[in-house]
Amino acid sequence: MERLVAVAQSAADAAGEVLRKYFRQRFEIIDKEDHSPVTIADREAEEAMTSVILKSFPTHAVFGEENGWRCAEKSADYVWVLDPIDGTKSFITGKPLFGTLIALLHNGKPVMGIIDQPILRERWVGVDGKKTTLNGQEISVRPCNVLAQAYLYTTSPHLFEGDAEDAFIRVRDKVKVPLYGCDCYAYALLASGFVDLVVESGLKWCLEWTKSEPGSQFSAQAIFVFKLGFNVVAAGDSRVHGQALAALRWR
């Protein structure tokens, strides 16, 4: 596992070099079929990560948000999942709250994950069975036993539609402070114990790491999915997690 983590760190370093080069610079922005933006920075950063990984582990599979599979997904025990810029809209508007995401699955089970913020030079690393670290220092979630005291993050309230919107309003109205606009950085803040709850809906795929603390809760059918309409409820305390689920009443 140490070598796997070292290669993941090198891949994050490679992506960071690319992203710092383009951050707050002028470049072409392309709209994908789903109208989400993509830039040359996304593509170069993903290619840089893929190159690092396959050079070290040529038999591994890589799936990237921009380029898809680099080998048949059933041909490898280890699968790397990459999102070069989670929060492209933040990146193109000069807001340093996007992140580079790296996940590693072994036989379908997530065993490692990284959130890297290359502008602020913050890196969260989670390894199955170990405590999550921020820049090498162990971190932990914080206790929060009442939903009314919880600080909640979601990327945007506009991502909730129909029943999901009604559900989000129910939980939003019960928390102490609802906050918006952090993309993957919200999960990093959750793992670090600065916020208590992250609620998302309508994700195309979710790429995060395992629990940072025995009491933390991630309510999801899988860590890595492709289905539209995927709902995420992540909490640092199982008590507030249960209260959030009750308020949401998601089926």
How would you concisely characterize the structure shown here?
With about 250 residues, the protein is an alpha+beta fold.
Compile the SSE list and pairings.
Blueprint: H1 2-22, E1 29-31, E2 37-39, H2 40-56, E3 61-64, E4 68-69, E5 78-86, H3 88-92, E6 99-106, E7 109-117, E8 122-127, E9 133-134, E10 137-138, E11 151-154, H4 163-172, E12 177-180, H5 185-192, E13 197-203, E14 217-219, E15 230-235, H6 238-248
Parallel strand pairs: 3-5, 11-12, 11-13
Antiparallel strand pairs: 1-2, 3-4, 5-6, 6-7, 7-8, 8-9, 9-10, 13-15, 14-15
Helix pairs in contact: 1-2, 4-6
Supply database-style keywords:
251 residues; Fructose-1,6-Bisphosphatase, Chain A, domain 1; D-Maltodextrin-Binding Protein, domain 2; 5-stranded mixed β-sheet
Overview of the structural elements:
With 251 residues, the protein is of the alpha+beta class. It folds into two domains: 2-137, Fructose-1,6-Bisphosphatase, Chain A, domain 1, CATH 3.30.540; 147-248, D-Maltodextrin-Binding Protein, domain 2 (3-Layer(aba) Sandwich). 29% of the residues lie in helices and 29% in strands. The protein has six helices and 15 strands. It has an eight-stranded mixed beta sheet with strand order 4-3-5-6-7-8-9-10, sandwiched between helices. A five-stranded mixed beta sheet has the order 12-11-13-15-14, with helices on both faces. Helix 1 packs antiparallel against helix 2 and helix 4 crosses helix 6 (238-248). The longest helix has 21 residues, at 2-22. The radius of gyration is 17 Å and the shape is globular. The N and C termini lie far apart (37 Å).
